[in-house]
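tmp note - Cytochrome c lysine N-methyltransferase 1
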Amino acid sequence: MELANICNATIAKGIAVQKDSYGGYGVYIVDPGALVGCNDPKLGGDKIELLRVSSVFNVKNLMEAMNALEGEYAEDGQRAADMFKSIIGSSIEELSAVSETCLLVYFMMVIYLMGEQGYAVPMKISRYIDTVLLGTTVNNASNCIESMLIHYEHVALFHELDNNLQKLHKTLISKMPSKKNYSIELLRQIYSATVSRVLEIPQELHEENYMDNYVVTPSLVPILDYVNHGDKTSRNAYYDVDRRKGDIILYLDLTVVNPGKLKPNTEVLITYKDIEDSLAMITKYGFDPANYTTTGTKIFSCTFDKMYLSTNKFDNEIDIRNFYQWFSINPSLQFVLNSENEWLINDSLAEFERLLVPFATSSQRNEHYWIYSDGDDARKRFMEYFDIDEVEDEDEAWAQLETQFKWFESSENDLMPFPPCVWTVKSKFLKEKEATGYELEKVIQNKLENSRALYNETTNQFQAYLENYLDYRIDVLQEYSPEDTENENAVSQLIARELSVLLKIRDRINNNKSIFLNSEDKKYAKLPLLPTKNVERPPWLSEGDDDFDQD
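out:
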């Protein structure tokens, strides 16, 4: 294929890129017989080279390729190299906080637009953009972000994605030499194609000690980026780096497959990670593989609807949304698919125990219960905490502080940049009659860890609250009609996945089955959490000010 020639890729006989079952493309073994006997004893005899790629695109080598134009195209090359340096150099400050993958998207956009404006750009990069990044339709979250924010407004991940897209677009418009209003749809296309294809490639820092000195770099690897992801039971290949040449190589793994027994058109599949994150898959690729049982781990995370948490108070008194804000508790649940193909709540996470804290209220109301107070008691505690009891105008200092924390309470931000002085607890666990702040949370957490009776009572109260939430959320999801998001696959896939998981959890509750993983396997305590939402800026910060401190 033309792209292989342009990008210096070598493809083994019997291998081809073809349409896959999800509407995209994959790499297939169309003629297994062509691979029989191709294993090289010098490589250990347990693998066959299917693909070798010399041209890899990442931030570093895109910069190098554009700088190299100075010596390749005389004046045109110098002009293009200077323009690229100018655009990127002036963009660094605006893009200092974005990920390296976002920078890769930005570099690709700049190179593409420079080519459109008549600047000399490297042919292989230009062809890759035209053929792959612009020629691949990926119905992932970035291509339907408006609909995703309508249906999942409460999920911080999609606000973060939207903010990244807006930041890249705004920077692009302001830095390109032609002040055209470049379409954000073009950016979304390149963004969606890039994030769905990017691979984490290890890069050597010091040749003499490679294993201890390398970084993982988000990279686009032509042809290899057509290879799809499989679980541990279907994976039959893996990629590696040729340390001597720097090439990326795709190997057929002969420890798991025998090419002589493969059927024609067997798909080549690699495993990216041991953790299969349904939400991440839908966000990046626009689809979620079916349930399966593997030696890996499949998870699904969802964020509570914060309006529900605020309007449906626990015990008719505790505003769960407000409580989670003040204690900076991530308002998300993580579900794990166990070996019996059942979705269960991951209660091994430290953050899950923090979710339980507001529910650690005795039903008898005589042992311990939470109290919210933003009046004189809160004022006293704030003044003591900030040591501002000797200011000239204490009333004015308190008024300013109260205005600020009230603004945060009503904002969409999940984290509060103040100590939780408005929340106190009356408890027989404490020597004092009343305590407050993060120390208070630690006391309750310690009691939860060391009192099985209290833990059971707390989880029961949490489950009762969750059961009502499930009824509410399932009703919302079941009102969804696919026509609402026609051709926006990521939205419909995410709704279907969340609905499926929540229905299974509710069924377990109705059948008096445990909904908790209750595993002693330490790997479950380290699974990744969803990000928290912190996108609104306080009105007392001007546009040029640094973001407020959330620590």
